[in-house]
TrEMBL record:
A Pfam family of this chain: CoA_transf_3
Domain of life per record: Bacteria
Transferase in keyword set: yes
Source organism per UniProt: Polynucleobacter victoriensis
Keywords: Transferase
Coiled-coil ranges from the UniProt annotation: none
GO molecular function, one term: CoA-transferase activity
InterPro entries tied to this protein: CoA-transferase_III_domain (IPR050483), CoA-Trfase_fam_III (IPR003673), CoA-Trfase_III_dom3_sf (IPR044855), CoA-Trfase_III_dom_1_sf (IPR023606)
Keyword Transferase attached: yes
Protein name, per record: Formyl-CoA transferase
Length: 406
């Protein structure tokens, strides 16, 4: 059941960054136990509409948001504010390799579920904390949200149309990129810690900050500033460093052309019957095209308007110039390449009968991802885990439920 089937993860995180990490590990075979609050569970269960519909067509309490990030996990409900709930978590920690949490800095310490406390009962534990601003620094105790971090980390200053054009100004991404990337970095860091533990027997603490991740993922844009001392600005759908690397309006819609070198630029303009543009000294090389983009852009736009999207994509495909359409999600999932890669998947679901999800993009030849569990119902596996992993009797489980601990 995957490369990580020897690992158990206790996932105390909520919302997006932590659960995204947990789903990655679960897709790779780890046994991920999602710990949720009794009655309400993870906040994202209610982040809709849309909600999954049951076999009778009625809305369930499973939002599309929640479904996207909780595949292959088991759900257990535990009230960690009560001593009995804390004891359940500690017993599960003894049988786990990894803990993921995204509580405010210091919040779990009052429950005895912080790293130092749990390390005392399992010294090779790998413990990953995800917060908005990290465990140190003047902002450590602030709540951190993806949207705020996109602004603070510079992303929104370089995203959106140019400020001097209609609609210009800062723009967030259409998906919570700081959360998603933090989940990806957390996955990598945890796997590195597993390798270290397997070699040395020593666990460790991982401190991940959304703000740190947002700045790190600015990559060449941040490097442009560090190299030049000039704050980068927004370029809309164009690139600050490559021309043409942008959208163009064809006669019936929009296309993207990403000519990453001079040869591709020549093939682009030759396909549009404007070969003289590649011979013009202002446009012959990428640095010159970047310097003279204001003269070049309208010439290219005029050229592209003469053909349809389909005509351009066919021509540029033959010419080996990277290009593509701008699809809505209906078009995404109807695309022949997406269909061929089986990106859309269907899983059985206990209340809806079936649920459609996006398949993991990780393709491993020897230990392939196996989608074996749909996103769990709230507390779906509480009884199973308490009985099989902790050895609790039916009467003990009943008592915990009556007390509101599970």
């Amino acid at each position: 059941m995957g490369a990580l089937n020897h690992l158990r993860v206790l996932d105390l995180s909520r919302v997006l960054a932590g659960p995204w990490c947990g789903q990655n590990l679960a897709d790779l075979g780890a046994d991920v136990i999602k710990v949720e609050r009794p009655i309400t569970g993870d906040d994202t269960r209610q982040w809709g509409p849309p909600f999954l519909r049951n076999s009778e067509g009625k809305e369930t309490t499973e939002s599309a948001f929640y479904l996207a990030i909780n595949r292959n996990k088991r759900s257990i409900t535990v009230d960690i504010s009560k001593p009995e709930g804390q004891e359940i978590i500690k017993k599960l920690v003894l049988q786990s390799d990894i803990v993921i949490e995204n509580y405010k800095v210091g919040q779990l310490k009052k429950y005895g579920l912080d790293y130092e406390s749990l390390k005392g009962i399992k010294n090779d534990l790998i413990y990953c904390s995800i917060t908005g601003f990290g465990q140190t620094g003047p902002y450590a105790h602030r709540p951190g949200y993806d949207y705020i971090v996109q602004g603070m980390g510079g992303f929104m200053s370089v995203t959106g149309e140019k400020e001097d054009l209609p609609g210009g100004g800062p723009q967030k991404a259409g998906v919570a990129i700081a959360d998603i990337f933090t989940g990806m970095y957390a996955t990598s860091a945890i796997l590195a810690a597993v390798v270290h533990r397997d070699r040395t027997g020593v666990g460790q603490y991982i401190d991940l900050s959304l703000l740190d991740v947002q700045i790190a993922t600015m990559c060449n844009v941040a490097s442009n500033y560090l190299t030049s001392g000039v704050p980068p600005k927004s370029w809309g759908n164009a690139s600050a460093n490559i021309v043409p690397y942008q959208t163009f309006k064809a006669s019936d819609g929009w296309i993207i052309v990403a000519a990453g070198n001079d040869s591709q630029f020549r093939h682009f303009v030759e396909s549009g019957h404007e070969p003289q543009l590649a011979d013009d000294p202002r446009f012959a090389t990428n640095p010159e095209r970047v310097r003279h983009r204001t003269e070049l852009d309208p010439l290219l736009q005029k050229m592209v308007l003469k053909k349809t999207k389909k005509e351009w994509i066919e021509l540029l495909d033959i010419a080996n110039v990277p290009c593509g359409p701008i699809n809505n999600f209906k078009e995404v999932f109807e695309n022949e390449q997406v269909i061929a890669r089986n990106i859309k998947m269907e899983m059985p679901h206990p209340t809806a009968g079936k649920v459609n999800l996006v398949r993991s993009p990780m393709r491993l030849s020897e230990t392939p991802v196996v989608e074996h569990r749909p996103p769990p119902l709230l507390g779906e596996h509480t009884h199973e885990i308490l009985q099989s992993k902790l050895g609790l009797t039916e009467s003990q489980i009943k008592s915990l439920k009556e007390q509101g601990i599970i």
